[in-house]
Design goal:
With about 290 residues, the protein is of the alpha/beta class. It has ten helices and twelve strands. It has a six-stranded parallel sheet with strand order 2-1-3-4-5-11, with helices on both faces. Strands 7-6-8-9-10-12 form a six-stranded mixed sheet, sandwiched between helices. It folds into two domains: about 130 residues, Rossmann fold, CATH 3.40.50; about 130 residues, Response regulator (Rossmann fold), CATH 3.40.50.2300. It is elongated, with a radius of gyration of 19 Å. The protein starts with a strand and ends in a 7-residue tail after the last helix.
Length: about 290
Amino acid sequence: MSLITGAKNDEFFAAMECGAKTAADELGVDLSVQSPAEYDASQQIPILNAEIAKGPDAIVIAPTDDTALIPPLRQAKGDGAVVVTADTVVNDPEVAVSEVRSDYKAATKLATERLSELIGGKGKVLLIAADPGITTQDDGKAGYEAGVQAEPGLESLGTEYDSFDVTKTSAIVSATLASDPDLAGIITLNGPSSPGVVNSLERAGKQDDVTYLTFDALPVQVEQLKRGQITELIVQKPYDMGRIGVENAVASLDGESVEKDVRTDVVTATPDTVDDPKVSKYLYKSC
């Protein structure tokens, strides 16, 4: 079986790998783990093609693009491999027997409503995502827009895209503060954005004026949370995604029916709760 994550040196995918390896060990599965250097479909597709050429029984993959990955995944399925997606999906519901992921739309809507509560129900807010064409980002944007619609006191400054580039994140926040110095809140959909947001807010002297919520629980984010630079973390469960992905692939290979749409939940971490074992066990780390 092959596991193809979204990127190397990313604690989210390291946690996913840990969950997949745990399930593989328990089920006696020979698991090969491959990752592109960066979260980039042009890097992931050659890895996927190479794995398909080996003839695996199953492939668990975090697709880095909802369209570009369709042809090779169709080929994998056509060659007889069971396909399971984890974290993200592709725009072909027939490719994967199971899709294991967070409900990004619902979680981001709740985060937007929580942001409204924290800033007193009114103010300018901004969403920062990675790139369109990634299901988590598209779903997150939809959830944010639904949350803004549900909170009439919020004035959305829209969605900006940073392509997982912290330099772009910093530039987005700096430009927004220049045009809208009364910015009240920011939500980011990805952990790698956090250093850019925190640094820009501190350079502008706005760290106490802008409430900042973000997805993920990378080690750098956890430290920023403890220092009060992040207000709250929306912690996903990539370990569970990897574990369930392998379990469902094996079950499908054994002829069992598996749940098609599997949604793992999220937990909220605050400076006061982050060390609580009920929360800390979900912080992202390698195994």
